[in-house]
C-alpha cells in the first residue's frame, strides 16, 4: 500500500489564509465599531493596543471621564466604564454579557473548566451558604493560630523584632485551609517538618506557569488557536502537574461520591468539606440534568486558586495598611483582645465592628482582582447615569455596543473612585463605613457597596468563605503579633497583573513579597 505524505505547502497556505482573514476581520471591526466616537487613550502598540497599561486604568478616568474606549489586540475597540448604572445593566444581563471566549480559554488553560467558567444557575449551590461556612470557622482559626505560632517562634530575643515575608506565610496558610475545607485534603504547607506533598508541588508548578499568562505567545494563541499546537518551554512539566492534579482529583471525587451515597446525615465533620457538599447537592433529584455539574466542574481547580491566592494577597494588603496606620492596628488589637477566647465562632467574628470595618476597607482599597471582562452576545444599548462627551463634543446618556464588543469591568477603579468615595478615596480609613457615601450606595456589588466580588447572578460564589477566613486570620495575627513594614512604604507597589499582589519596586525580579518586622504583642 502506498502512503502519500501531505505536502507542507497547502498547510502553510491554509495557515496564512486563516491569519490574513483574522487580521482583516479585526481591522474591519475597528472602522465600523459603534465605539469609534468615544474618547480614550491612544494605543501604545499596534499589536497589543492599550493592554500593557490596562491595570493603570485609574489614570484613564481622570483624563477621559467615567466612560471611554481603549484598544485591545490589533487595535480592536473595547468599552471601559465605572458608571454605576451601566455596570448594573451589564452585570444583571448575563444572557447578553458573558465572559469573553478569550478569557474563558485563558482560564481553562491555566485552571481547567470549573465553577468560574460555569454559566447560568449551576454555580449557585448551598455548599457556599452561611451555614456551611460557619462549619469552616474552626479550620480558619486553627490554621491562623498555626501561622501565628510559626512566625512567633522566629522571634528568638524578647523585644527584638524579626523580618518575615508575610506573603509566603499567608499563601501557605490559605492553601492549607482550602485543602481541608475544600477537599478534606492535607497540604501541610505550614508544617516545616512535613514531607514533600505531591499535590502541593503539582499545584505550585501549575500556578507558577499560570502567572506567565500575560505573555505575548499566550495572547497570540488565544487570538489564533492553531498556535496552540506549537511546543513551548515548560509544557511537559505543566502537563505532568495537571496529570497529577487530575488523578488525585478523580480519586477524591470517587471517594466523596461513595461517602455521599452512604451518608445518612451531614453532621459528621468529615463530610462537611465543599467537595462532598457539592457532590451531595449535585445528586439532588430536583436539579435538572442540564444544570448538574460535571466532575471537572465539581473539582473546580480554579476555586483552589481563587480561595487560596486571593485571600492570602488581600490579607497581606491588610497587614500592609495596618503597619502604616499604627493607630488603627492598636485600636483593632484592643477590640480583638477583648474577646476572651482564641477560637471565637463565626458570629463572634462578625460581631466585631472595627474588625468588620477594617476588612471592608481593605477589600475596597485592595481588591484581589483589578478588573474582569465581559463580551456582548448581541447588540445592546447601555444606559448611563453620567453622560459622556464624544470626540465631536456631543453629549450621550447611553452607549451602543455591537455584538462581540468587549467591556472591561474595573473593580479597582470603581472602588477607588473619588466621585464615588470622596476625596479621601485613596486613604485607608475604616471609619468611612460608619456612614457610606450616597454615591457608593449605587454601586451594584453583591457585598458592601463595592465591586470586589462583582454583582448580579455571576457574582463571586465564595465571598462568604473569603470574608470569614480573612477575619479569622486578622483576628488571630493581630492578637498575637505586632506588625511593622521592613521596607519604605513607597517601595511596596501592586504587581502589574490581574491579581493585585504586593511587590517591591527595588526587587521586581524576585516576585511577590512583603517583608515585615514582627514581634510578640506582650513585648510592645
From TrEMBL:
<protein>
    <recommendedName>
        <fullName>Cytochrome P450</fullName>
    </recommendedName>
</protein>
<dbReference type="InterPro" id="IPR050121">
    <property type="entry name" value="Cytochrome_P450_monoxygenase"/>
</dbReference>
<feature type="transmembrane region" description="Helical">
    <location>
        <begin position="6"/>
        <end position="28"/>
    </location>
</feature>
<dbReference type="GO" id="GO:0020037">
    <property type="term" value="F:heme binding"/>
</dbReference>
<dbReference type="GO" id="GO:0004497">
    <property type="term" value="F:monooxygenase activity"/>
</dbReference>
<dbReference type="InterPro" id="IPR036396">
    <property type="entry name" value="Cyt_P450_sf"/>
</dbReference>
<comment type="similarity">
    <text>Belongs to the cytochrome P450 family.</text>
</comment>
<comment type="pathway">
    <text>Secondary metabolite biosynthesis.</text>
</comment>
<dbReference type="GO" id="GO:0016705">
    <property type="term" value="F:oxidoreductase activity, acting on paired donors, with incorporation or reduction of molecular oxygen"/>
</dbReference>
<keyword id="KW-0408">Iron</keyword>
<keyword id="KW-0812">Transmembrane</keyword>
<dbReference type="GO" id="GO:0005506">
    <property type="term" value="F:iron ion binding"/>
</dbReference>
<feature type="binding site" description="axial binding residue">
    <location>
        <position position="460"/>
    </location>
    <ligand>
        <name>heme</name>
    </ligand>
</feature>
<keyword id="KW-1133">Transmembrane helix</keyword>
<keyword id="KW-0349">Heme</keyword>
<keyword id="KW-0472">Membrane</keyword>
<dbReference type="InterPro" id="IPR001128">
    <property type="entry name" value="Cyt_P450"/>
</dbReference>
<dbReference type="InterPro" id="IPR002403">
    <property type="entry name" value="Cyt_P450_E_grp-IV"/>
</dbReference>
<keyword id="KW-0503">Monooxygenase</keyword>
<keyword id="KW-0560">Oxidoreductase</keyword>
<keyword id="KW-0479">Metal-binding</keyword>
<dbReference type="Pfam" id="PF00067">
    <property type="entry name" value="p450"/>
</dbReference>
Amino acid at each position: 500500500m502506498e502512503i502519500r505524505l501531505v505536502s507542507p505547502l497547502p498547510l502553510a497556505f491554509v495557515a496564512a489564509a486563516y491569519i490574513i482573514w483574522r487580521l482583516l476581520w479585526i481591522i474591519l471591526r475597528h472602522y465600523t465599531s459603534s465605539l469609534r466616537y468615544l474618547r480614550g487613550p491612544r494605543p501604545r502598540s499596534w499589536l497589543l493596543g492599550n493592554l500593557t497599561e490596562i491595570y493603570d486604568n485609574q489614570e484613564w478616568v481622570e483624563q477621559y471621564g467615567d466612560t471611554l474606549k481603549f484598544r485591545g489586540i490589533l487595535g480592536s475597540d473595547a468599552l471601559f466604564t465605572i458608571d454605576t448604572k451601566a455596570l448594573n445593566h451589564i452585570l444583571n444581563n448575563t444572557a447578553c454579557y458573558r465572559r469573553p471566549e478569550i478569557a474563558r480559554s485563558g482560564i481553562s488553560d491555566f485552571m481547567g473548566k470549573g465553577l468560574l467558567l460555569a454559566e447560568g444557575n449551576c454555580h449557585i449551590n448551598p455548599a457556599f451558604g452561611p451555614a456551611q461556612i460557619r462549619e469552616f470557622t474552626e479550620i480558619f482559626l486553627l490554621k491562623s493560630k498555626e501561622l501565628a505560632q510559626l512566625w512567633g517562634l522566629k522571634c528568638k530575643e524578647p523585644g527584638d523584632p524579626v523580618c518575615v515575608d508575610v506573603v509566603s506565610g499567608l499563601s501557605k496558610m490559605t492553601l492549607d485551609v482550602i485543602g481541608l475545607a475544600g477537599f478534606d485534603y492535607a497540604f501541610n504547607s505550614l508544617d516545616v517538618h512535613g514531607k514533600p506533598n505531591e499535590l502541593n508541588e503539582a499545584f505550585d508548578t501549575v500556578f507558577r506557569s499560570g502567572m506567565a499568562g500575560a505573555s505575548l505567545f499566550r495572547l497570540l494563541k488565544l487570538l489564533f488557536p492553531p498556535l496552540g499546537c506549537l511546543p513551548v518551554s515548560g509544557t511537559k512539566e505543566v502537563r505532568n502537574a495537571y496529570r497529577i492534579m487530575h488523578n488525585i482529583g478523580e480519586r477524591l471525587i470517587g471517594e466523596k461520591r461513595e461517602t455521599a451515597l452512604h451518608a445518612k446525615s451531614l453532621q459528621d465533620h468529615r463530610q462537611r468539606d465543599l467537595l462532598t457538599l457539592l457532590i451531595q447537592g449535585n445528586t439532588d433529584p430536583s436539579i435538572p440534568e442540564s444544570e448538574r455539574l460535571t466532575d471537572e466542574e465539581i473539582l473546580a481547580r480554579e476555586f483552589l486558586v481563587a480561595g487560596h491566592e486571593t485571600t492570602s494577597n488581600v490579607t497581606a494588603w491588610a497587614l500592609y495598611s495596618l503597619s502604616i496606620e499604627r493607630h488603627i492596628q492598636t485600636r483593632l488589637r484592643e477590640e480583638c483582645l477583648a474577646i476572651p477566647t482564641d477560637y471565637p465562632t463565626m458570629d463572634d467574628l462578625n460581631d466585631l465592628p472595627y474588625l468588620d470595618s477594617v476588612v471592608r476597607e481593605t477589600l475596597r482599597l485592595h481588591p484581589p482582582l483589578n478588573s474582569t471582562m465581559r463580551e456582548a452576545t448581541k447588540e445592546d444599548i447601555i444606559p448611563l447615569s453620567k453622560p459622556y462627551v464624544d470626540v465631536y463634543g456631543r453629549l450621550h446618556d447611553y452607549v451602543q455596543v455591537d455584538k462581540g464588543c468587549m467591556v472591561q469591568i474595573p473593580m479597582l477603579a470603581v472602588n477607588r473612585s473619588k466621585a464615588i468615595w470622596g476625596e479621601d478615596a485613596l486613604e485607608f480609613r475604616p471609619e468611612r463605613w460608619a456612614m457610606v457615601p450616597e454615591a457608593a450606595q449605587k454601586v451594584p456589588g453583591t457585598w458592601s457597596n463595592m465591586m470586589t466580588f462583582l454583582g448580579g447572578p455571576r457574582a463571586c460564589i465564595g465571598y462568604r468563605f473569603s470574608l470569614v477566613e480573612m477575619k479569622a486570620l486578622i483576628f488571630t495575627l493581630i492578637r498575637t503579633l505586632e506588625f511593622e513594614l521592613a521596607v519604605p512604604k513607597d517601595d511596596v507597589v501592586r504587581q502589574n497583573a490581574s491579581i493585585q499582589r504586593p511587590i517591591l519596586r527595588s526587587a521586581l525580579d524576585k516576585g511577590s513579597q512583603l517583608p515585615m518586622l514582627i514581634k510578640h504583642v506582650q513585648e510592645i
